[in-house]
Specification:
binds magnesium ion; binds uridine-5'-diphosphate; about 50% helix
């Protein structure tokens, strides 16, 4: 293949306080690029680091790398905005210059050699290629169980996410153009990307451990992220209230009848029937009313997202005016 026809690849790497890993990451990736230049990717391809408001020397390291070698590029965010937002900033910046963009973490826990397989899938016509972990052997039992439970729970709620896939993925320029149309503030990229459509592929890899530094995702951030994932894609929790209300309401009516019967038989203390009956009935009615309100809030919630209602993959149209 002619070199100039090769795709321009941008690697996007969000970094938050990653001074310990950055130099090593940069040099490992450069080696990978050297292998690919001229064979798989265009010489204008770059490695783009996004500094997510780090408090350490991360940005200085990125700037130095860029001065030494223009292979390295950097985006500096004004403050810490979290992994997902930093990633989006990088993707949208890279999209202007690249044909394909691959996102990965700064700690290189994701096997960088999967990049080759991803590009291979792209040349076979995939617009989105998911990096999927082949096993979770290196995780703690706790992380493994919670993660697996979470994927199952999300599937139950009707959220379409790729099993064991984090944010290691390849996206073509047009897939990124589609992503740009999603204007949501609570960003959960793993949930949005499968909604884009297009031809997708999967590449399996073994996930390693962080080679230096510690996780920037403490349990608290992880829980918040998990919750965001659910509440950004599903109104089922709200629906649950309505169902619960209906069940309790029905039960209330049944119980009221039972109480009345007891009352007629004379099996009760005075005041008991009306008290117990109304407690259940009113409780059920209240929950049901809340559920109905919830349904409307759910609708408003979906509307306020202004998500694109469709993404056009291709158009067949002969515009004759251009021929002139
Ligand atoms: N990260 C970020 N902003 C944050 C937290 C994390 O850009 O607020 C980056 C971090 O530098 C790394 C990636 O997100 O490149 C994943 O974080 P980490 O490896 O700490 O998460 P884990 O692998 O432990 O889930
Ligand atoms: Mg990590």
């Amino acid at each position: 293949m002619e070199i100039l026809n090769l795709p321009i690849l941008y690697l996007v790497i969000p970094c938050y306080n990653e001074e310990e890993v950055l130099p090593e990451t940069a040099s490992r990736l450069k080696k990978l690029y050297t292998q690919m230049f001229g064979k798989l990717i265009h010489p204008n391809s770059k490695i783009l680091f996004v500094n997510d408001g780090s408090k350490d020397k991360t940005w200085q390291i990125i700037s130095t790398l860029h001065e030494q070698d223009t292979l390295y590029a950097g985006v500096n965010l004004s403050r810490n905005r979290g992994h997902q937002n930093a990633l989006l900033a990088g993707l949208m910046t890279a999209k202007k210059h690249a044909d394909i963009v691959i996102s990965m973490d700064a700690d290189l826990q994701d096997d960088i050699n999967a990049v080759l397989k991803m590009i291979q899938k792209y040349t076979e016509g995939c617009d989105i290629v998911y990096g999927v972990r082949s096993s979770r052997k290196k995780d703690t039992a706790f992380k493994r169980m919670t993660a697996q439970g979470y994927y199952k729970f999300m599937a139950m709620l009707g959220v379409d996410i790729v099993y064991n896939h984090a944010d290691y993925r390849l996206m073509s320029k047009r897939a990124l153009d589609a992503l740009e149309q999603y204007g949501e503030v609570n960003l959960f990229l793993r949930g949005i990307i499968p909604q884009l459509g297009y031809k997708t592929g999967t590449v399996y890899y073994e996930r390693g451990e962080r080679f230096a530094g510690e996780s920037k995702y403490p349990l608290k951030k992880m829980l918040a992220f998990a919750f965001d994932g659910i509440t950004s894609f599903s109104i089922k929790p709200v629906r649950l209230i309505l169902t619960l209300g209906a069940i309790i309401g029905l039960f209330g009516i049944g119980y009221l009848i039972y109480c009345l019967v007891q009352n007629i038989i004379g099996n009760t203390v005075e005041g008991w029937t009306s008290l117990i009956g109304s407690v259940w009935l009113i409780g059920g009615l209240q929950l049901m009313a809340l559920g109905v309100i919830g349904e409307y809030i759910g609708k408003i919630y979906y509307e306020t997202k202004h998500r694109p209602r469709y993404i056009i993959e291709s158009v067949l149209l002969n515009d004759n005016s251009k021929d002139a």
